[in-house]
Amino acid sequence: MNRYFWRSRTQQEVDYIEDHSGSLHAFEIKYNSKKSVTAPSQFSNSYDKYTFETITPNTIRDRLQI
């Protein structure tokens, strides 16, 4: 598994990306869980297949499988 972050020249970013054998799983990490977040348009246009998830204080335990 490879781990990355992604940022465009126009400063759009994805906080954390895991690459599992060519399958991308992108994560945005937010303290405020009230905001709905989608993948940046430049990221979406650059990669065909990926998952995108927002991690918040309310969802971190599920993601870490604690």
Describe the structure.
The protein is of the alpha+beta class. The chain has one domain. It is built from two helices and four strands, in the order βββαβα. Strands 1-2-3-4 form a four-stranded mixed β-sheet, with no helix packed on it. The protein is globular. The chain starts with a strand and ends with a helix.
Strands, helices and their partners?
Elements (H helix, E strand, L loop, with lengths): L1 E6 L5 E8 L2 E7 L11 H6 L3 E6 L4 H5 L2
Parallel strand pairs: 3-4
Antiparallel strand pairs: 1-2, 2-3
Strand content: 35-45%
- Average pLDDT, rounded to a whole number, is 88
Distance between the termini: 21 Å
Radius of gyration: 12 Å
Order of strands, widest sheet:
1-2-3-4
Provide a quick synopsis of the model:
This protein has 66 residues and is α+β, with helices and mostly antiparallel strands. 17% of the residues lie in helices and 41% in strands. A hairpin with a 2-residue loop joins strand 2 and strand 3 (23-29).
Give me some keywords for this one.
single chain, 66 residues, alpha+beta, 4-stranded mixed beta sheet, 4 strands, 41% strand, globular
